[in-house]
Design a protein that fits this description.
7-stranded mixed β-sheet; single chain; 54% strand; 11 strands; 0% helix; 4-stranded antiparallel β-sheet; 121 residues; mainly beta
Length: 121
């Protein structure tokens, strides 16, 4: 079955950096576009970024563009999100996800348990 396991979250001050990782298993990783999405309590999922199957095309939400970098290693079935210049509003639970629809309201067919990112002033 599809398994997505995130790691790397934590508490960081504004302006700091974190690197999130996702270990994928149970499916052919290089067949799928992969996503990072996030959620804060009381709000819906927010799309952060996605990357195509070979890693050559990446898209970012305006709120993180220029600060976050998504990447993937198809040989190791891993997805990564490098987050720099973190802001208070980046606080949330971050999920690695697959089969997402981000047209209006973000929803995803599969996502992991998430990893918490907390940015403090």
């Amino acid at each position: 079955q599809v398994q997505l396991v995130e790691s790397g979250g934590g508490l960081v001050q504004t302006g700091g950096s974190l690197r999130l990782s996702c270990a994928a298993s149970g499916f052919t990783f290089n067949y799928y576009r992969m996503y990072w999405v996030r959620q804060v309590p009381g709000k819906g999922l927010e799309w952060v970024s996605h990357i195509n199957t070979n890693g050559e095309a990446r898209q970012y939400a305006e709120s993180v563009k220029g600060r976050f970098t998504i990447s993937r290693d198809n040989a190791r079935n891993t997805l990564t999100l490098q987050m720099n210049s973190l802001k208070l509003e980046d606080t949330g639970r971050y999920y690695c996800a697959r089969d997402c629809n981000i047209a209006v309201v973000t929803s995803c067919g599969y996502r992991g348990q998430g990893t918490q990112v907390t940015v403090s002033s």
